Amino acid sequence: xxxxxxxxxxxxxxxxxxxxxxxxxxxxxxxxxxxxxxxxxxxxxxxxxxxxxxxxxxxxxxxxxxxxxxxxxxxxxxxxxxxxxxxxxxxxxxxxxxxxxxxxxxxxxxxxxxxxxxxxxxxxxxxxxxxxxxxxxxxxxxxxxxxxxxxxxxxxxxxxxxxxxxxxxxxxxxxxxxxxxxxxx
Length: 185
Fold this sequence. Notes:
There is one protein chain. By secondary structure, this protein is mainly beta. It is built from one helix and nine strands; from the N terminus they run H-E-E-E-E-E-E-E-E-E. Strand 7 (about 140-150) and strand 8 (about 155-165) form a beta hairpin. It is elongated.
């Protein structure tokens, strides 16, 4: 009887040590299958981003103006820009870019882009891809990180390439081609 008690006590002690050894108080490892995560897929999305600052119904609205002693540094604009399949704003709407951009450099026109590509089309309807990064506007191609998303893009990562298609110097309206590469489940 004493030996059964000793074995039981050792098993209980070992189990306690194993459990305590894995508990970090605020985080733990999970089996990805418990969250329904499968093998990752790589997807490519190509669309046009329409930044409309002029007219009666702008999709980009300034919310913070820069101080008087700087050119654009400190400027912040909130956006709800259409995402279309073609460069014309009248082409098929596939989603909206929602968020803001801010002028983050004192030496050049470089923007901090914080936006969700919120899709409204096909199997991606209701899903978002989140981009957070630096956009050096006058570079021919800019690359920004994809830091996550929602819906089909939960736990996603990747990058977005931006190329200016057109920029109207009179109005400030711009059309930017985006190619987004996303690893997701």
